[in-house]
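anyone seen this seq b4? input:
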Amino acid sequence: MAWVVWFTGLPGCGKTTIAKLVREKLLLQGINAKILQLDEIRRVVTPDPKYTDEERDLVYASLAYMAKILSEEGINVIVDATANRRRYRDLARSLVPRFAEVYIKAPLEVCMTREAERRAQFSPKGIYKKAVHGAAVPGVGVSYEEPAAPEIEVDTISMTADQGASLAAERIMELFEE
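predicted toks r here
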């Protein structure tokens, strides 16, 4: 039976980088997983995003349901999405029997610096700068609710991306070994 692992953390914490590295490490072990990157999916679901609470409810519910459907079809899923409210991740947990949460942890100041320098393909640029002008950015204009009890925690201050990805990949294999 397939699993879903949700990578959460503040924008700029390293979710996308680590999720991609985890997928590569799992592939080396013969385990395939599809990455659902919210920043890419959002371009279809809400092409002109306003980042309102109502829009976030819709986008995250859609994402959780996509992950559920894929897992039911035997596809392992890595969800790469901030999901600033616990209820978004809890919804996915309630829909998917084999679910785990990975908290990519970094202080807001570090995330702001990283976000200003990132070259991610789908992530919006300059979001923390926009927050200064009132944009609803998790950790600044909108609260970010850390996971209450994540199955995996990666501290990107004390670990490199590769070390964090190795830890997460090993733990995923332990959690979902057949």
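The chain has a mean pLDDT of 89. DSSP finds seven helices and five strands in the chain. kinda curious what u guys think
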